[in-house]
Amino acid sequence: MSRFFSNKYKNLTPYTPGEQPKDFKYIKLNTNESPYPPSKRAIREASKASKLLNLYPDPTCSALNNKMAEILGVSPEEILMTNGSDEVLNFAFMAFCDEKTPAIFPDITYGFYSVFAELNNVPYEEIPLKEDFSIDTEAFMGQNKTIFIANPNAPTGICLPLSEIEKILKSNPNNIVVIDEAYIDFGGESAVSLVPKYDNLLVTQTFSKSRSMAGARLGFGVAQKEIIADLNTIKYSTNPYNINKMTMASGVGILEDNDRTIKNCQKIIKTREFTKEALKDLGFTLTPSSANFIFAKHKDMGGEEIYKKLKEAGILVRHFNSEKIKDYNRITIGTKKQMKALISALKTILEEN
Predict the structure, then answer these.
(1) pTM for the model
(2) Which CATH fold topology does 40-256 show?
(3) What three-state secondary structure class fits 344?
């Protein structure tokens, strides 16, 4: 770093994204993107918007908000569109955490939570997962801290039922509970239905996974309008034009093709179940994933070695060096053809081992 870099960030460890190879020789199963492209309607709407890039986008995202509200059954005032769900998560750390109100989240979860806490100088606590990698909901009861829970959790894929989320909400009435639902469309039940009931609930989602728009950067938060107003204060104090015209337009197009999104999710779920059975036949142990990825370890071969061997074979998966999960790899669910290639490569690797 330079001699000008502020001391307040000198110990900041940035988030490490999954590998993004510049060539496309790999079967890419490492960053939980959709294997399916966005709909033709979304591409068409983005193309139309590109002709007006000389003008600022609508800071209120009214067309997108209205369409999203219609699909979710909430009011437009209860939605905030953001530049990926990472932005609304960062806004939440800024708006609802400080020295008197620390953050709390599981010790094995989305890696950006600790980064956002450190970036915003927010004290935080990490609650260990149970032995089976499920979230210990009892440990989040009555914490008097701002709670962040990814549901389904990453990288384990394990999903909490709404009944457990309600327990956490009820026991922390004076603190915001953020439920990060990046993967909810692949088997979980969304907490959006609880928004009218709890004024301390903020649900975040993304267009990156189920809606095939990882490259467009679009996410959103859902909460009662007073919470959204707080988040808008942060937004309008940082970047009022946080969603560009093409992303906004393509987002509307995706939502107008919502049946296609649902069908794609169903295909991914079906492929996930096929892959789980094939991996079990090869001697892998898996967590019960409700996401568009699988978290797996092998009884005879370490996670890092499998990751490296797969990379040599032209297949990227995600490996984490954390002591608790170093034997596991997170494997994105691609097309059936891609997953068959993965299984074939793993058979060869295990036979050679």
Answers:
(1) 0.96
(2) Aspartate Aminotransferase; domain 2 (3.40.640)
(3) helix
Report the 10 Å Cβ neighbour count for 123. 15
Return the residue matching tokens 């709670």: 147
φ, ψ at 179 (rounded to 5°): -110, 110
| Fold (topology level) of 16-36+259-352 | Aspartate Aminotransferase, domain 1 (3.90.1150)
Task: Give the tokens for residue 32.
Answer: 């939980």
φ, ψ (nearest 5 deg) of residue 271: -70, -35
Q: Which pair of tokens denotes residue 237?
A: 């104090």
Give the tens place of pLDDT for each residue, 42-57.
999 999 999 999 999 9
Task: Round to the nearest angstrom and report the end-to-end CA distance of the chain.
Answer: 42
Cα 103 from chain centre: 18
Using DSSP, state whether 17 is helix, strand or coil. Answer: coil
292 touches 34 (CB < 8 A): yes
Mean pLDDT of the chain: 96
